[in-house]
Structures are given as C-alpha cells and as structure tokens.
Design goal:
By secondary structure, the protein is an alpha/beta fold. It is 36% helix and 20% strand. Strands 3-2-1-4-5-8-9-10 form an 8-stranded mixed beta sheet, sandwiched between helices. Helix 3 crosses helix 4. The longest helix has 15 residues, at 159-173. It is globular and about 50 Å long. The structure holds NADP nicotinamide-adenine-dinucleotide phosphate. Residues 7-12, 30-31, 35, 67-70, 72, 75-76, 93-95, 97, 133, 136-137 line the site of NADP nicotinamide-adenine-dinucleotide phosphate.
C-alpha cells in the first residue's frame, strides 16, 4: 500500500520503519520536504521510504497516519488541506498533550472535546479513526512486547473504516482483533485521550518504562 506518515518524531519513525519493512511504500511528511529527521529515517530503508511535505505525503497515499505533536496536528492537517484527504482513512495516533511550566504534562483540551473530533469536524469527507494513541510506539508495532492479552481502543464514525483499520493493525503489527475494543463514534476519543495523564503517571511514577498496556477484564 501507499501510506503517508505525517510526523517525524519517534512514532512516525517506528510506524514508518515497520511499514517499509513489510513492503509498503511509505512517505514521511513534514513541514518541509527535506526535513533532517525524515531524511535520516528514509536513508537506510531504500527506495520505498520517501520524504515530502505533509501535503504531498498525504496526496500520494491511500491511507494516512497522523502522528504529529498533538497541539499542532490541526496546523499540520491544514497544511495538507481537504482534497488530499478526501475519502481516505486517517488514523489519528496523536494526543493533545502540552507541557506546563513545572514540566508536567496536561491535555490542552479534553472532556467535551478531543483531537479526534476536531479532525473529523474539520475534514468531514475523511474517515477519521482514533487508534494506537494509548500505547508507546514500541508497543504499537510489537504488542507481544507486553505478555498476555491487553487492549487497544479504536473509535470513529465510519464502521467500515474501523473494520479495515482493525485488519491493518492485525496484519501490520500483530494486534489480535479480539483485543481491539471498538468504543463507538469519534467522541470516544475524549476518553482515550484522557487516558494519557494516567498513562504518564504509570510510566514516570510507577512502572518506570513505557512497555506496558491496559487490559480490560469483563465480569458476567
Ligand atoms: N511517543 C510515543 O510513544 C507516543 C505514543 C502514543 C501517542 N503519541 C502521540 O503521537 C504524536 C507524535 O509523537 P512523537 O513523539 O513521535 O512526535 P512529536 O515530537 O510530538 O511531533 C513531531 C511532529 O510534529 C510536527 N509539528 C511540531 N510543531 C508543529 C507545528 N507548529 N505545525 C505543524 N507541525 C508541527 C513536527 O513537524 P516537522 O516534521 O516539520 O518538525 C513533527 O513532524 C504525539 O501527539 C504524541 O502525543 C506518542
């Protein structure tokens, strides 16, 4: 497949590398076509790893993965514009986290809003699916790093797109479809984004590394 990775951070690097290794044609998008990090990412991967502007990367792709700094994701997507995203699945991996003066992380908006919803509202003809945002990028691409069953959350307004994304997450990264919980429409992104303060506390204050995940256990 032709896949756009919008974002040159550790998430873009991890997802992009795995997708190229699987044989996909991946373009890493950035504010500038020859972004230093993107060029460094593409170099060892060969001809199926390319770099471009956010807009050109999305235009080239069949499916788009948005993994930019969450407080700037809307800016990045406005640089793309509506046309290159029309009718396509966009997997939104980002969280709208911002750093406070004391170094702590807070959500820039939450509760009655979410980044997933903002993207869907701004791009009504794009099939926005929120997924992967509640796990570290090394777990995204290799869930077996965490032993046993554990869950991923997915939401979005387009049921067929969600099914397709569940299939990709299984094929690309090895997520068991039974462990992917469909939370419903895109407003559920409020909840998955609001899991981040808990995730950060577990990471920094309890577990001390990012290789963990949530497991939902059902009673009768
Ligand atoms: N790290 C993880 O394991 C993890 C796990 C789950 C979710 N997430 C979420 O995934 C997203 C990506 O995280 P990351 O650490 O890989 O990268 P990041 O450092 O949060 O974001 C880097 C990207 O944001 C873009 N960006 C920054 N400021 C911008 C602006 N003013 N306008 C447009 N674009 C701008 C950068 O563009 P340029 O390329 O042009 O510099 C770059 O592509 C975040 O939202 C994060 O919360 C991360």
């Amino acid at each position: 497949m032709k896949i756009a990775i919008l974002g040159t951070g550790m998430v873009g690097d991890a997802l992009g590398t795995r997708l190229v290794q699987l044989g996909h044609e991946v373009t890493m998008g950035s504010r500038t076509a020859a972004n230093e990090k993107a060029v460094r990412w593409a170099k060892p991967l060969g001809q199926t790893a390319r770099t471009a502007t956010f807009r050109d990367a999305a235009a080239f792709a069949e499916i788009v993965i948005s993994c930019t700094s969450g407080t700037h994701s809307m800016e990045a997507l406005q640089m793309v514009g509506a046309e290159p995203l029309r009718g396509k699945i966009l997997i939104d991996v980002s969280n709208p986290l911002q750093q406070e003066k004391d170094g702590g992380m807070i959500l820039a908006f939450c509760n009655t809003d979410s980044l997933g919803e903002q993207i869907q509202k701004a791009f009504p003809w794009t099939r926005v699916i929120k997924a992967l945002n509640t796990v570290n990028c090394e777990i995204m691409i290799e869930p077996s790093r965490v032993p046993g069953d554990h869950n991923l959350f997915i939401c979005g307004n387009d049921a067929a797109a969600k099914k397709e994304v569940i299939k990709y997450l299984a094929q690309w990264f090895g997520w068991k479809p039974d462990n992917i919980i469909d939370l419903g429409d895109i407003t559920a992104a409020r909840g998955t984004e609001m899991m981040m303060p808990l995730w950060m506390r577990l990471f920094q204050g309890v577990i001390g590394h990012p290789h963990f995940n949530y497991h939902i256990v059902r009673g009768n």
